[in-house]
Amino acid sequence: MKSNEKINYSTKPIIKITIDNQNDLGFAPWGDGLAEWTPIRSLYTHRPGIETSLASLDYNTNLFHDVFDLEKAQNQHDEFTSTLASENIKVISSHDLTKYINSKDLAPFITFDESFTKDQKSKLIDSYISHNKQLDLLLTKPSIKRISANNQDIINQFSINNPLGNFLYARDPIFQTGEKRFHLSNLKFNVRKQEANIMELLFNKLNLHSNISISIDKFNQQVDTIEGGEVVPAGDTIIIGVESHRTNLNSVYELMKTNSIGHSNVVLVISPVKTQEEMHIDTWFNIIDEDLYIGSQRFFDNPIDILYYERNENGYYLLNKEISDFKTLLENKLKMKKISLNDKQQKDLMSNGLTISPKKYIMIGGKPTSQGFKKSLEKHGVEVISVELDELTEGHGGAHCMTQPIQRDLDSNYI
Prior knowledge:
alpha/beta
């Protein structure tokens, strides 16, 4: 059954904007200009640690391909961040931001048994902070119990609750909707839901670390799901994958209704499949420049349904009579050309590289199809930087998934 037979488009011909808690933004488009190809000046990333190694031991439950080789992954991540720095991109890591985590921030992430006094809890938390263990505690959320050993010594027994092994995929828990404006995701799976809360905590420390002031919006109701890997900004248009393995349609309608998206045009791409391998749109689609995109041949050989909305003075109006197919929108409306991915290249996540400026792309090296895809990019005039990231892709994500751009050239007033 085609996706447009499952969705009654006519039920949402108009999405009216109801400005309540975001009155400062107004009805005029405020998100235009943000785009995948806009040069990145600073970004956030997380170097995988003990949480990823532990989570991958139960790799199916924690959404990994296989058990993680932590040392190899860390070495690859170090090479990746060095490459970003060599391109004059400021890399802000989770470790940088956790330096500003205090005892009040940390306390909700640790469960103490009833035998701990308030003073004992405070002393233990202060000890962790003095040894820079905030990030380990945030991502393992331990329970701590005091037990007697040999009937005399009291020791602390730790148990780990749901290590957040996917936290290295920074694109998913939060997404950017405009200049200095972000929105928290509502992640689908319980093994990842806590990531958004930690990302909010860390991003609120950006001002202390880098003098970057941002706003973070969040859903009023945590019912429908959306993840940042579905959000692809493209100038005055924002493209969002919906009805996929991780993101549903109503979550985006909520964003539109509450003025949490500020682009002139919103394109909702109805996912052709709902599988773990193609969990987000960035596993089969990406943008290299305002006139060039990457797309899976398997999907683009057939029509991909979209909901195409245009913003006016009081809401978003559905324009599907004009354009209802994703390829038509990209190539006829946005005037883009396609670099095709074959099935093997898509499986190797060749679309999940990172565009750092127009036609400049950091791609995943170390995969069977890497060299062939590199040649395809270069034929289209793309400057390619290949970094071996094969171990880091064990959780179904590459350079795009592992980064969260913070400042682009459109933010030049505070770079």
